[in-house]
Q: What sequence folds into this?
């Protein structure tokens, strides 16, 4: 991949296309999980890759580029929500695309959990998405989001406690 990065930095369009193909699902998935809107996530992913194209010469390694892509994608998600200041909604046809669990899980429960994650504040939501969707360690998340590891762990602890409490309430209401 570092050869591809070097070729792309020298202007090789096919090499850049290879980079985009290799990372587009990760960037799009982060945006979709955070923004919960397919069209907006696609637009944001395009903006991230345009910015990558403009900054290719600054990429030191494939690992640096991956870190950079995650950081820029998460920052663009936060910027977008602050600009738009709208509530996140999901179209019904997109709900299945976003499920993370095994296919035999309860779709109603998965949908409720997704809505609960979407209701978290920006930073805690990003921390949860990066931890459980991207399977990143707290130290990696701290680097990507530019915050102390203790803050990442606090966001995770509080978010999981909040989600657990909301889920218990949801399950209690569903059993009535």
A:
């Amino acid at each position: 991949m570092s050869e591809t990065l070097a070729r792309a930095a020298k202007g090789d369009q096919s090499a850049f296309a290879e980079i985009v193909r290799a990372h587009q699902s990760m960037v799009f998935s982060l945006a979709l999980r955070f923004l919960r809107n397919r069209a907006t996530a696609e637009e944001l992913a395009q903006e991230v890759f345009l910015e990558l194209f403009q900054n290719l010469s600054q990429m030191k390694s494939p690992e640096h580029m991956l870190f950079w892509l995650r950081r820029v994608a998460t920052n663009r998600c936060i910027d977008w929500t602050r600009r738009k200041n709208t509530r996140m909604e999901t179209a019904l046809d997109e709900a299945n695309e976003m499920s993370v669990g095994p296919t035999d899980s309860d779709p109603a429960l998965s949908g409720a959990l997704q809505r609960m994650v979407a209701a978290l504040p920006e930073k805690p939501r990003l921390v949860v998405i990066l931890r459980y969707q991207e399977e990143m360690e707290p130290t990696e998340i701290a680097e990507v989001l530019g915050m102390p590891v203790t803050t990442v762990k606090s966001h995770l602890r509080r978010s999981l406690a909040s989600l657990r409490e909301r889920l218990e309430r949801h399950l209690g209401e569903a059993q009535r």
Observations:
- The radius of gyration is 18 Å.
- Residues 142 and 149 are 5 Å apart (CA to CA).
- DSSP finds nine helices and no strands in the chain.
- Confidence is low (pLDDT under 50) at residues 86-104.
